[in-house]
Design goal:
618 residues, 6-stranded antiparallel barrel, alpha+beta
Protein backbone atom coordinates (compact mmCIF):
# COMPACT_ATOMS: atom_id res chain seq x y z
CA UNK A 1 0.00 0.00 0.00
CA UNK A 2 1.40 3.39 -0.99
CA UNK A 3 1.31 5.94 1.86
CA UNK A 4 0.36 9.62 1.37
CA UNK A 5 3.96 10.59 2.15
CA UNK A 6 5.24 8.31 -0.63
CA UNK A 7 2.75 9.86 -3.05
CA UNK A 8 4.00 13.36 -2.06
CA UNK A 9 7.58 12.36 -2.86
CA UNK A 10 6.57 10.70 -6.15
CA UNK A 11 4.65 13.81 -7.23
CA UNK A 12 7.55 16.06 -6.25
CA UNK A 13 10.00 13.92 -8.26
CA UNK A 14 7.73 13.96 -11.31
CA UNK A 15 7.28 17.74 -11.06
CA UNK A 16 11.01 18.19 -10.59
CA UNK A 17 11.81 16.13 -13.68
CA UNK A 18 9.22 17.96 -15.75
CA UNK A 19 10.76 21.29 -14.77
CA UNK A 20 14.32 20.43 -15.65
CA UNK A 21 15.32 19.52 -12.08
CA UNK A 22 13.88 22.67 -10.50
CA UNK A 23 11.10 22.36 -7.94
CA UNK A 24 8.10 24.55 -8.64
CA UNK A 25 7.07 26.90 -5.83
CA UNK A 26 3.64 26.12 -4.47
CA UNK A 27 1.20 28.94 -5.09
CA UNK A 28 0.23 29.17 -1.42
CA UNK A 29 3.87 29.89 -0.48
CA UNK A 30 3.85 33.15 -2.42
CA UNK A 31 0.53 34.61 -1.28
CA UNK A 32 0.84 37.19 1.46
CA UNK A 33 -1.60 36.71 4.30
CA UNK A 34 -3.32 33.78 2.56
CA UNK A 35 -5.18 31.08 4.45
CA UNK A 36 -3.15 28.14 5.68
CA UNK A 37 -3.99 24.87 3.95
CA UNK A 38 -6.60 22.65 5.58
CA UNK A 39 -3.95 19.96 6.06
CA UNK A 40 -1.13 21.95 7.69
CA UNK A 41 1.12 18.96 8.43
CA UNK A 42 0.87 17.70 4.84
CA UNK A 43 1.69 21.19 3.51
CA UNK A 44 4.64 21.45 5.88
CA UNK A 45 5.91 18.07 4.69
CA UNK A 46 5.79 19.31 1.10
CA UNK A 47 7.71 22.44 2.10
CA UNK A 48 10.14 20.33 4.12
CA UNK A 49 10.88 18.14 1.10
CA UNK A 50 11.66 21.21 -1.00
CA UNK A 51 13.87 22.71 1.70
CA UNK A 52 15.84 19.49 2.13
CA UNK A 53 16.43 19.13 -1.61
CA UNK A 54 17.40 22.79 -1.99
CA UNK A 55 19.89 22.78 0.90
CA UNK A 56 21.55 19.63 -0.41
CA UNK A 57 21.86 21.17 -3.89
CA UNK A 58 23.15 24.61 -2.88
CA UNK A 59 25.69 23.80 -0.16
CA UNK A 60 28.61 23.33 -2.60
CA UNK A 61 28.16 26.94 -3.81
CA UNK A 62 28.36 28.53 -0.33
CA UNK A 63 31.87 29.67 0.61
CA UNK A 64 33.65 31.20 3.56
CA UNK A 65 35.51 34.47 2.87
CA UNK A 66 38.51 35.68 4.83
CA UNK A 67 38.54 39.41 5.52
CA UNK A 68 41.05 42.11 6.49
CA UNK A 69 40.01 41.94 10.13
CA UNK A 70 42.41 42.66 12.98
CA UNK A 71 42.45 39.86 15.54
CA UNK A 72 40.35 41.96 17.91
CA UNK A 73 37.49 41.89 15.38
CA UNK A 74 37.54 38.14 14.86
CA UNK A 75 35.13 35.85 16.64
CA UNK A 76 36.45 34.40 19.88
CA UNK A 77 35.46 30.74 19.99
CA UNK A 78 36.88 30.22 23.46
CA UNK A 79 40.03 28.28 22.63
CA UNK A 80 41.08 30.06 19.44
CA UNK A 81 39.89 32.57 16.88
CA UNK A 82 37.88 31.63 13.81
CA UNK A 83 40.14 31.74 10.77
CA UNK A 84 37.30 32.32 8.29
CA UNK A 85 35.25 35.30 9.29
CA UNK A 86 32.28 35.47 6.96
CA UNK A 87 30.45 34.14 3.92
CA UNK A 88 29.82 34.39 0.19
CA UNK A 89 28.09 32.58 -2.67
CA UNK A 90 29.45 31.46 -6.06
CA UNK A 91 27.21 32.85 -8.83
CA UNK A 92 29.00 31.73 -12.01
CA UNK A 93 30.69 28.59 -13.29
CA UNK A 94 34.01 30.44 -13.66
CA UNK A 95 34.07 31.34 -9.96
CA UNK A 96 32.50 34.77 -9.40
CA UNK A 97 31.73 35.11 -5.69
CA UNK A 98 29.15 37.56 -4.36
CA UNK A 99 29.72 38.81 -0.81
CA UNK A 100 29.72 42.08 1.15
CA UNK A 101 32.03 45.08 1.08
CA UNK A 102 32.68 44.99 4.82
CA UNK A 103 33.56 41.27 4.57
CA UNK A 104 36.11 41.28 1.76
CA UNK A 105 37.23 44.89 1.25
CA UNK A 106 36.96 46.68 4.60
CA UNK A 107 37.67 45.52 8.11
CA UNK A 108 37.30 48.53 10.36
CA UNK A 109 39.95 50.84 11.80
CA UNK A 110 40.83 52.09 8.28
CA UNK A 111 41.80 48.58 7.14
CA UNK A 112 40.73 47.95 3.55
CA UNK A 113 41.69 46.24 0.34
CA UNK A 114 41.60 47.29 -3.28
CA UNK A 115 40.62 45.65 -6.58
CA UNK A 116 43.33 43.21 -7.61
CA UNK A 117 44.26 42.29 -4.04
CA UNK A 118 43.97 38.66 -3.00
CA UNK A 119 42.05 37.00 -0.24
CA UNK A 120 41.29 33.42 0.74
CA UNK A 121 38.08 31.49 0.42
CA UNK A 122 37.21 28.01 1.52
CA UNK A 123 34.69 25.74 -0.18
CA UNK A 124 32.11 23.53 1.48
CA UNK A 125 34.37 20.51 0.97
CA UNK A 126 37.25 22.23 2.81
CA UNK A 127 39.40 23.24 -0.17
CA UNK A 128 41.19 26.54 0.33
CA UNK A 129 41.55 28.75 -2.74
CA UNK A 130 42.80 32.22 -3.63
CA UNK A 131 40.36 34.82 -4.90
CA UNK A 132 40.92 38.22 -6.52
CA UNK A 133 38.95 41.18 -5.22
CA UNK A 134 36.89 42.88 -7.91
CA UNK A 135 34.51 45.76 -7.27
CA UNK A 136 32.50 46.76 -4.23
CA UNK A 137 29.72 49.14 -3.33
CA UNK A 138 30.08 50.34 0.28
CA UNK A 139 26.74 52.15 0.34
CA UNK A 140 24.85 48.95 -0.49
CA UNK A 141 27.54 46.83 1.23
CA UNK A 142 28.12 44.54 -1.76
CA UNK A 143 31.32 43.05 -3.16
CA UNK A 144 32.45 40.71 -5.91
CA UNK A 145 35.43 38.36 -6.05
CA UNK A 146 36.75 35.86 -8.58
CA UNK A 147 38.38 32.53 -7.75
CA UNK A 148 41.84 32.55 -9.34
CA UNK A 149 42.16 28.83 -9.98
CA UNK A 150 40.51 28.01 -13.33
CA UNK A 151 37.73 25.49 -13.18
CA UNK A 152 34.01 24.91 -13.36
CA UNK A 153 32.51 25.65 -9.97
CA UNK A 154 29.13 24.78 -8.47
CA UNK A 155 27.12 27.98 -8.53
CA UNK A 156 23.66 29.43 -7.94
CA UNK A 157 21.50 31.55 -10.21
CA UNK A 158 20.21 34.98 -9.35
CA UNK A 159 16.43 34.83 -9.19
CA UNK A 160 14.42 36.81 -11.67
CA UNK A 161 13.87 40.40 -10.52
CA UNK A 162 10.52 41.01 -8.84
CA UNK A 163 9.94 37.27 -8.38
CA UNK A 164 9.78 37.55 -4.58
CA UNK A 165 6.46 37.98 -2.78
CA UNK A 166 5.65 38.93 0.76
CA UNK A 167 5.19 35.75 2.79
CA UNK A 168 7.55 33.60 0.69
CA UNK A 169 9.44 30.96 2.63
CA UNK A 170 13.18 31.49 2.29
CA UNK A 171 16.49 30.01 3.41
CA UNK A 172 19.55 31.83 4.78
CA UNK A 173 22.91 30.12 4.21
CA UNK A 174 26.21 31.19 5.72
CA UNK A 175 28.94 30.55 8.27
CA UNK A 176 27.90 31.83 11.72
CA UNK A 177 31.00 31.89 13.95
CA UNK A 178 33.08 31.56 10.78
CA UNK A 179 33.99 28.43 8.87
CA UNK A 180 34.20 25.26 10.96
CA UNK A 181 35.69 22.04 9.53
CA UNK A 182 33.12 19.29 9.33
CA UNK A 183 30.21 21.67 9.70
CA UNK A 184 30.34 23.89 6.65
CA UNK A 185 27.51 26.28 5.85
CA UNK A 186 24.48 26.50 8.14
CA UNK A 187 20.89 26.75 6.86
CA UNK A 188 18.02 28.61 8.50
CA UNK A 189 14.37 29.02 7.51
CA UNK A 190 12.33 32.21 7.50
CA UNK A 191 9.76 34.27 5.64
CA UNK A 192 9.78 37.48 3.64
CA UNK A 193 8.23 40.03 6.00
CA UNK A 194 8.36 43.19 3.93
CA UNK A 195 9.17 44.42 0.41
CA UNK A 196 10.01 48.10 0.12
CA UNK A 197 11.63 50.94 -1.77
CA UNK A 198 14.87 52.12 -0.16
CA UNK A 199 14.69 48.86 1.82
CA UNK A 200 14.68 46.06 -0.76
CA UNK A 201 13.32 43.27 1.42
CA UNK A 202 13.19 42.14 5.05
CA UNK A 203 13.21 38.50 6.19
CA UNK A 204 13.19 36.92 9.64
CA UNK A 205 15.76 34.13 9.21
CA UNK A 206 17.97 33.80 12.27
CA UNK A 207 21.51 35.08 11.66
CA UNK A 208 24.69 35.69 13.61
CA UNK A 209 28.22 37.04 13.24
CA UNK A 210 29.89 35.32 10.28
CA UNK A 211 26.68 35.23 8.23
CA UNK A 212 27.62 38.46 6.44
CA UNK A 213 27.93 37.89 2.71
CA UNK A 214 25.81 34.76 2.76
CA UNK A 215 22.83 34.52 0.41
CA UNK A 216 19.09 34.52 1.00
CA UNK A 217 17.52 31.85 -1.22
CA UNK A 218 14.05 30.93 -2.36
CA UNK A 219 12.97 27.30 -2.02
CA UNK A 220 14.08 26.71 -5.61
CA UNK A 221 17.67 27.47 -4.60
CA UNK A 222 17.97 30.79 -6.45
CA UNK A 223 19.64 33.80 -4.83
CA UNK A 224 17.05 36.45 -3.95
CA UNK A 225 19.24 38.69 -1.79
CA UNK A 226 22.42 39.33 0.19
CA UNK A 227 22.19 40.40 3.83
CA UNK A 228 22.85 44.13 4.16
CA UNK A 229 24.55 45.05 7.42
CA UNK A 230 24.06 48.78 6.94
CA UNK A 231 20.28 48.47 7.19
CA UNK A 232 18.83 46.94 10.34
CA UNK A 233 15.06 46.96 10.86
CA UNK A 234 15.19 45.60 14.42
CA UNK A 235 13.99 48.92 15.83
CA UNK A 236 11.11 49.33 13.39
CA UNK A 237 7.89 49.83 15.34
CA UNK A 238 6.22 46.72 13.97
CA UNK A 239 4.12 44.31 15.98
CA UNK A 240 6.43 41.29 16.08
CA UNK A 241 5.86 37.80 17.45
CA UNK A 242 7.93 36.70 20.41
CA UNK A 243 11.39 35.32 19.51
CA UNK A 244 11.40 37.02 16.13
CA UNK A 245 15.14 37.71 16.29
CA UNK A 246 17.11 37.75 13.08
CA UNK A 247 15.02 40.44 11.41
CA UNK A 248 17.33 41.87 8.74
CA UNK A 249 17.33 43.78 5.47
CA UNK A 250 18.62 42.20 2.28
CA UNK A 251 19.82 43.70 -0.99
CA UNK A 252 17.57 42.37 -3.74
CA UNK A 253 18.50 40.84 -7.07
CA UNK A 254 17.31 43.99 -8.86
CA UNK A 255 19.83 46.12 -6.94
CA UNK A 256 22.58 43.52 -7.39
CA UNK A 257 22.06 43.44 -11.16
CA UNK A 258 22.00 47.24 -11.33
CA UNK A 259 25.38 47.42 -9.58
CA UNK A 260 26.93 44.44 -11.36
CA UNK A 261 28.73 46.47 -14.10
CA UNK A 262 30.60 48.45 -11.42
CA UNK A 263 31.32 45.30 -9.43
CA UNK A 264 32.79 43.61 -12.51
CA UNK A 265 34.80 46.63 -13.71
CA UNK A 266 35.81 48.71 -10.70
CA UNK A 267 37.92 51.85 -10.84
CA UNK A 268 41.50 51.13 -9.78
CA UNK A 269 43.51 53.73 -7.90
CA UNK A 270 47.01 53.71 -6.52
CA UNK A 271 45.72 54.52 -3.06
CA UNK A 272 42.60 53.43 -1.22
CA UNK A 273 41.39 57.04 -1.10
CA UNK A 274 41.32 57.11 -4.91
CA UNK A 275 39.14 54.03 -5.20
CA UNK A 276 35.55 53.43 -4.15
CA UNK A 277 36.35 51.72 -0.88
CA UNK A 278 35.91 54.64 1.50
CA UNK A 279 32.13 55.13 1.85
CA UNK A 280 30.57 58.24 0.44
CA UNK A 281 29.27 59.19 3.86
CA UNK A 282 26.64 61.76 2.75
CA UNK A 283 25.08 59.23 0.39
CA UNK A 284 25.38 56.47 2.96
CA UNK A 285 23.73 58.57 5.66
CA UNK A 286 21.02 59.81 3.33
CA UNK A 287 20.09 56.25 2.34
CA UNK A 288 20.00 55.07 5.94
CA UNK A 289 17.90 58.06 6.95
CA UNK A 290 15.48 57.28 4.15
CA UNK A 291 15.32 53.66 5.32
CA UNK A 292 14.63 54.61 8.92
CA UNK A 293 11.76 56.79 7.79
CA UNK A 294 10.42 54.04 5.56
CA UNK A 295 10.65 51.30 8.19
CA UNK A 296 9.21 53.38 11.03
CA UNK A 297 6.46 54.79 8.83
CA UNK A 298 5.02 51.48 7.69
CA UNK A 299 1.86 50.37 9.44
CA UNK A 300 1.36 46.74 10.34
CA UNK A 301 -1.00 46.23 7.40
CA UNK A 302 1.96 46.75 5.05
CA UNK A 303 4.01 43.91 6.51
CA UNK A 304 3.33 40.19 6.85
CA UNK A 305 0.92 39.64 9.77
CA UNK A 306 2.87 38.74 12.89
CA UNK A 307 0.97 35.46 13.32
CA UNK A 308 2.42 34.26 10.00
CA UNK A 309 6.10 35.00 10.66
CA UNK A 310 8.38 31.99 11.01
CA UNK A 311 7.79 32.07 14.80
CA UNK A 312 4.27 33.48 14.62
CA UNK A 313 1.31 32.06 16.49
CA UNK A 314 -0.25 30.60 13.35
CA UNK A 315 3.01 29.03 12.19
CA UNK A 316 3.68 27.41 15.56
CA UNK A 317 0.04 26.47 15.96
CA UNK A 318 0.25 24.20 12.92
CA UNK A 319 2.43 21.94 15.10
CA UNK A 320 -0.02 21.68 18.01
CA UNK A 321 -1.32 18.23 17.11
CA UNK A 322 2.27 16.96 17.25
CA UNK A 323 3.55 18.88 20.28
CA UNK A 324 0.53 18.34 22.54
CA UNK A 325 1.31 14.66 23.30
CA UNK A 326 4.80 15.67 24.46
CA UNK A 327 3.64 18.23 27.04
CA UNK A 328 3.35 15.71 29.89
CA UNK A 329 6.82 14.41 29.14
CA UNK A 330 8.51 17.73 29.87
CA UNK A 331 9.32 19.29 33.25
CA UNK A 332 10.97 22.51 34.37
CA UNK A 333 14.21 22.05 36.31
CA UNK A 334 14.53 24.73 39.00
CA UNK A 335 17.37 26.34 40.92
CA UNK A 336 15.51 27.90 43.81
CA UNK A 337 12.37 29.32 42.22
CA UNK A 338 13.91 29.96 38.82
CA UNK A 339 13.90 27.59 35.87
CA UNK A 340 17.42 26.86 34.66
CA UNK A 341 16.62 24.08 32.18
CA UNK A 342 13.95 21.74 30.94
CA UNK A 343 13.97 18.04 31.66
CA UNK A 344 12.75 15.19 29.48
CA UNK A 345 10.95 12.29 31.14
CA UNK A 346 12.62 9.07 30.04
CA UNK A 347 11.23 6.70 32.71
CA UNK A 348 7.73 6.30 34.07
CA UNK A 349 9.25 5.91 37.57
CA UNK A 350 10.55 9.50 37.66
CA UNK A 351 13.75 9.39 35.60
CA UNK A 352 14.40 12.74 33.92
CA UNK A 353 17.20 13.74 31.56
CA UNK A 354 18.51 17.32 31.55
CA UNK A 355 21.54 19.58 30.94
CA UNK A 356 24.05 18.95 33.71
CA UNK A 357 26.05 22.19 33.73
CA UNK A 358 23.02 24.44 34.30
CA UNK A 359 21.43 22.64 37.25
CA UNK A 360 22.22 22.76 40.96
CA UNK A 361 22.84 19.79 43.26
CA UNK A 362 19.56 20.53 45.05
CA UNK A 363 17.50 20.76 41.88
CA UNK A 364 13.73 20.55 41.88
CA UNK A 365 11.34 19.66 39.08
CA UNK A 366 8.09 21.48 38.36
CA UNK A 367 5.47 19.44 36.54
CA UNK A 368 2.73 20.63 34.21
CA UNK A 369 0.18 20.62 37.06
CA UNK A 370 2.37 23.05 39.03
CA UNK A 371 3.61 20.46 41.52
CA UNK A 372 7.26 20.90 42.54
CA UNK A 373 9.26 17.87 43.71
CA UNK A 374 12.86 17.49 44.83
CA UNK A 375 15.17 15.70 42.40
CA UNK A 376 18.25 13.62 43.04
CA UNK A 377 21.13 13.57 40.53
CA UNK A 378 21.93 9.89 40.01
CA UNK A 379 24.09 9.89 36.87
CA UNK A 380 26.12 12.40 34.91
CA UNK A 381 28.11 12.23 31.70
CA UNK A 382 30.56 15.16 31.48
CA UNK A 383 31.37 14.58 27.81
CA UNK A 384 27.72 14.99 26.82
CA UNK A 385 26.80 17.47 29.62
CA UNK A 386 23.88 15.24 30.56
CA UNK A 387 22.46 14.50 34.00
CA UNK A 388 19.92 11.86 34.99
CA UNK A 389 17.57 13.05 37.73
CA UNK A 390 15.36 10.85 39.88
CA UNK A 391 12.10 12.18 41.28
CA UNK A 392 10.05 10.11 43.74
CA UNK A 393 6.95 9.79 41.62
CA UNK A 394 5.39 7.10 39.46
CA UNK A 395 3.03 6.86 36.53
CA UNK A 396 4.75 9.47 34.36
CA UNK A 397 4.59 9.37 30.57
CA UNK A 398 8.03 8.83 29.04
CA UNK A 399 9.20 9.90 25.60
CA UNK A 400 9.93 7.33 22.94
CA UNK A 401 13.29 8.11 21.38
CA UNK A 402 13.85 7.57 17.67
CA UNK A 403 16.69 5.24 16.72
CA UNK A 404 17.27 6.89 13.33
CA UNK A 405 20.22 9.31 12.83
CA UNK A 406 19.43 12.86 11.69
CA UNK A 407 21.15 12.65 8.31
CA UNK A 408 19.70 15.61 6.37
CA UNK A 409 19.55 19.36 6.81
CA UNK A 410 16.21 21.04 6.19
CA UNK A 411 14.17 18.62 8.28
CA UNK A 412 11.35 20.52 10.00
CA UNK A 413 11.49 20.39 13.81
CA UNK A 414 9.85 21.86 16.91
CA UNK A 415 10.64 22.13 20.61
CA UNK A 416 7.52 21.33 22.67
CA UNK A 417 6.71 23.44 25.71
CA UNK A 418 5.11 22.16 28.89
CA UNK A 419 1.62 23.38 27.94
CA UNK A 420 0.82 21.49 24.75
CA UNK A 421 2.28 24.05 22.34
CA UNK A 422 5.81 24.75 21.19
CA UNK A 423 8.66 26.95 22.38
CA UNK A 424 9.59 27.50 18.76
CA UNK A 425 9.85 25.79 15.40
CA UNK A 426 12.52 25.61 12.71
CA UNK A 427 14.66 23.28 10.64
CA UNK A 428 17.71 21.10 11.10
CA UNK A 429 20.45 23.55 10.11
CA UNK A 430 23.34 21.08 10.06
CA UNK A 431 22.92 17.31 9.88
CA UNK A 432 24.19 14.98 12.59
CA UNK A 433 27.97 14.90 12.85
CA UNK A 434 30.73 13.83 15.21
CA UNK A 435 32.85 16.55 16.81
CA UNK A 436 36.50 16.30 17.71
CA UNK A 437 37.59 15.86 21.32
CA UNK A 438 38.94 15.92 23.85
CA UNK A 439 35.72 16.42 25.80
CA UNK A 440 35.34 17.54 29.40
CA UNK A 441 35.79 14.89 32.09
CA UNK A 442 34.09 16.89 34.84
CA UNK A 443 30.94 18.97 35.01
CA UNK A 444 31.68 22.67 35.36
CA UNK A 445 28.62 24.44 36.68
CA UNK A 446 27.51 27.52 34.78
CA UNK A 447 27.42 30.80 36.65
CA UNK A 448 23.89 31.78 37.68
CA UNK A 449 22.17 33.83 35.03
CA UNK A 450 20.67 37.04 36.40
CA UNK A 451 17.80 38.07 34.17
CA UNK A 452 17.12 41.67 33.24
CA UNK A 453 13.80 43.36 32.71
CA UNK A 454 12.93 43.97 29.08
CA UNK A 455 12.20 47.57 28.09
CA UNK A 456 8.50 48.29 27.59
CA UNK A 457 7.37 48.13 23.99
CA UNK A 458 6.48 51.79 23.78
CA UNK A 459 7.57 54.35 21.17
CA UNK A 460 6.59 57.99 21.36
CA UNK A 461 7.45 61.67 21.01
CA UNK A 462 8.44 64.17 23.68
CA UNK A 463 6.03 67.02 24.36
CA UNK A 464 7.32 70.48 25.12
CA UNK A 465 5.17 70.74 28.20
CA UNK A 466 6.39 67.37 29.52
CA UNK A 467 5.44 63.76 29.07
CA UNK A 468 5.74 61.15 26.35
CA UNK A 469 3.00 60.99 23.71
CA UNK A 470 2.64 57.31 22.75
CA UNK A 471 2.76 56.58 19.02
CA UNK A 472 3.14 52.81 19.00
CA UNK A 473 2.78 50.15 21.67
CA UNK A 474 3.25 46.38 21.58
CA UNK A 475 3.84 43.33 23.71
CA UNK A 476 3.28 43.41 27.46
CA UNK A 477 2.88 47.21 27.43
CA UNK A 478 -0.16 46.85 25.18
CA UNK A 479 -1.47 44.02 27.38
CA UNK A 480 -1.21 46.33 30.40
CA UNK A 481 -3.58 48.78 28.71
CA UNK A 482 -1.28 51.47 27.29
CA UNK A 483 -2.62 52.67 23.94
CA UNK A 484 -1.59 54.97 21.13
CA UNK A 485 -2.33 58.60 22.01
CA UNK A 486 -1.75 58.21 25.76
CA UNK A 487 0.43 60.86 27.40
CA UNK A 488 2.75 59.10 29.88
CA UNK A 489 3.77 61.42 32.72
CA UNK A 490 5.64 59.24 35.25
CA UNK A 491 6.85 55.69 35.84
CA UNK A 492 7.39 54.80 39.51
CA UNK A 493 7.19 58.53 40.20
CA UNK A 494 10.07 59.28 37.79
CA UNK A 495 9.21 61.95 35.18
CA UNK A 496 9.02 60.56 31.65
CA UNK A 497 9.97 62.89 28.81
CA UNK A 498 11.16 60.46 26.11
CA UNK A 499 11.16 56.74 25.32
CA UNK A 500 14.62 56.33 26.82
CA UNK A 501 13.34 57.55 30.22
CA UNK A 502 10.81 54.72 30.28
CA UNK A 503 13.49 52.18 29.36
CA UNK A 504 15.81 53.46 32.09
CA UNK A 505 13.04 53.12 34.66
CA UNK A 506 12.62 49.47 33.66
CA UNK A 507 16.36 48.79 33.78
CA UNK A 508 16.38 49.48 37.53
CA UNK A 509 13.95 46.60 38.15
CA UNK A 510 13.86 42.81 37.76
CA UNK A 511 11.50 40.66 35.68
CA UNK A 512 8.21 40.26 37.50
CA UNK A 513 8.40 43.74 39.06
CA UNK A 514 5.91 46.37 37.96
CA UNK A 515 6.12 49.95 36.83
CA UNK A 516 3.43 52.21 38.22
CA UNK A 517 2.43 54.33 35.22
CA UNK A 518 0.63 57.65 35.49
CA UNK A 519 -0.74 58.97 32.22
CA UNK A 520 -3.42 61.17 30.70
CA UNK A 521 -5.98 59.75 28.29
CA UNK A 522 -8.69 61.92 26.76
CA UNK A 523 -7.83 64.65 29.32
CA UNK A 524 -8.47 62.23 32.19
CA UNK A 525 -5.80 60.86 34.59
CA UNK A 526 -5.19 57.11 34.43
CA UNK A 527 -2.98 54.90 36.59
CA UNK A 528 -1.77 51.51 35.30
CA UNK A 529 0.47 48.72 36.50
CA UNK A 530 2.96 47.59 33.88
CA UNK A 531 4.45 44.17 34.77
CA UNK A 532 7.95 43.69 33.38
CA UNK A 533 9.03 40.66 31.39
CA UNK A 534 12.49 39.25 31.07
CA UNK A 535 15.04 40.10 28.39
CA UNK A 536 15.19 36.71 26.68
CA UNK A 537 18.96 36.85 26.23
CA UNK A 538 21.78 39.31 25.77
CA UNK A 539 23.49 38.85 22.42
CA UNK A 540 26.79 40.50 23.30
CA UNK A 541 28.85 39.06 26.17
CA UNK A 542 30.34 42.51 26.76
CA UNK A 543 26.86 43.84 27.53
CA UNK A 544 26.88 42.00 30.83
CA UNK A 545 25.00 38.84 29.91
CA UNK A 546 25.33 35.43 28.33
CA UNK A 547 24.31 35.04 24.71
CA UNK A 548 25.04 31.28 24.73
CA UNK A 549 25.22 28.50 27.25
CA UNK A 550 28.58 28.31 28.98
CA UNK A 551 28.88 24.71 27.76
CA UNK A 552 27.76 25.25 24.19
CA UNK A 553 29.59 23.48 21.39
CA UNK A 554 31.88 20.63 22.46
CA UNK A 555 29.86 17.42 22.50
CA UNK A 556 30.77 14.07 20.90
CA UNK A 557 27.87 14.10 18.41
CA UNK A 558 25.25 16.73 17.58
CA UNK A 559 22.89 18.11 15.01
CA UNK A 560 22.07 21.82 14.83
CA UNK A 561 18.74 23.59 14.39
CA UNK A 562 17.41 27.14 14.30
CA UNK A 563 14.69 26.87 16.95
CA UNK A 564 15.02 30.06 19.06
CA UNK A 565 15.61 28.60 22.52
CA UNK A 566 16.57 30.73 25.49
CA UNK A 567 19.46 29.96 27.84
CA UNK A 568 17.21 28.15 30.32
CA UNK A 569 15.31 26.05 27.78
CA UNK A 570 17.81 23.28 27.04
CA UNK A 571 17.13 19.72 28.15
CA UNK A 572 13.82 19.27 26.34
CA UNK A 573 13.02 17.15 23.29
CA UNK A 574 13.15 17.98 19.58
CA UNK A 575 10.37 16.45 17.49
CA UNK A 576 9.88 16.09 13.74
CA UNK A 577 6.80 16.22 11.51
CA UNK A 578 5.98 12.61 12.36
CA UNK A 579 5.92 13.46 16.07
CA UNK A 580 9.08 11.47 16.77
CA UNK A 581 11.62 12.61 19.36
CA UNK A 582 14.79 12.90 17.31
CA UNK A 583 17.02 14.60 19.88
CA UNK A 584 17.45 16.43 23.20
CA UNK A 585 18.34 20.13 23.18
CA UNK A 586 21.73 20.57 24.80
CA UNK A 587 22.95 24.14 24.11
CA UNK A 588 22.07 27.53 22.72
CA UNK A 589 25.09 28.37 20.57
CA UNK A 590 24.11 31.84 19.39
CA UNK A 591 21.38 33.88 17.79
CA UNK A 592 21.50 31.55 14.78
CA UNK A 593 20.49 28.43 16.66
CA UNK A 594 21.14 25.54 19.00
CA UNK A 595 22.71 22.11 19.26
CA UNK A 596 20.88 18.90 20.09
CA UNK A 597 22.14 15.43 20.96
CA UNK A 598 20.63 12.93 18.49
CA UNK A 599 18.15 10.46 19.93
CA UNK A 600 20.14 7.43 18.79
CA UNK A 601 23.11 8.73 20.84
CA UNK A 602 20.84 9.33 23.84
CA UNK A 603 19.68 5.72 23.64
CA UNK A 604 23.29 4.52 23.64
CA UNK A 605 24.09 6.67 26.69
CA UNK A 606 21.07 5.38 28.58
CA UNK A 607 22.05 1.82 27.75
CA UNK A 608 25.55 2.41 29.15
CA UNK A 609 24.08 3.90 32.31
CA UNK A 610 21.74 0.95 32.67
CA UNK A 611 24.73 -1.40 32.63
CA UNK A 612 26.66 0.74 35.11
CA UNK A 613 29.16 2.23 32.64
CA UNK A 614 29.16 5.60 34.41
CA UNK A 615 29.87 6.45 38.02
CA UNK A 616 26.91 7.79 39.98
CA UNK A 617 27.27 11.35 41.07
CA UNK A 618 27.58 12.25 44.71
Amino acid sequence: MTTPRVWQIIVAIVVTAACGGKLVRAESDAVAGGNEPSRPIAKMKEREFRAQQTIQNVLPAIVAVDGPYPKAFQIDRGDHFAAWCASGVIISADGLVLSQWHVSHQGGLAVWRNPGDETDIILQDGRQLKAELLGADPVRDLSLLRIREPGEYPHLKLAKPNSVAQGDWVLKLGHPFGYRPGRGAVARLGRVIYLGESVDLVADCRIFAGDSGGPLLNLDGDVIGIVESSANPQNASWVQPARSGGLMCYTSVSTIERLMPTLLNPPRGDKPEQGIYVPDLPEFRALNSQRRIELSGKVDAQILPAAEWSQGEKTRGAWNSLTEPSSGMLVEVLRGERRVAYGTVIGTDGQILTKASEISDDACCRFTNGEVLSARVVRVDPAWDLALLKVEVSGLRAVELSDQPVRTSGRFVAAPDARGGSIGVGIVSVAQRNLEGPFPSIIRKAAPYHPKAAPPGVLGDSLEGGGLRVKRVKGFAASAGITSGDLILTANDQPIHQTRDLHQAAEQLRPGDTLQIRLVRNDLPVELELPLEEVPYVECPGAGGRYRNSRADDFPCVFEHDIPLLLDECGGPVIDLDGRVIGINIARVGEHGCMAIPADCIKSILLRWKHGDAAPTK
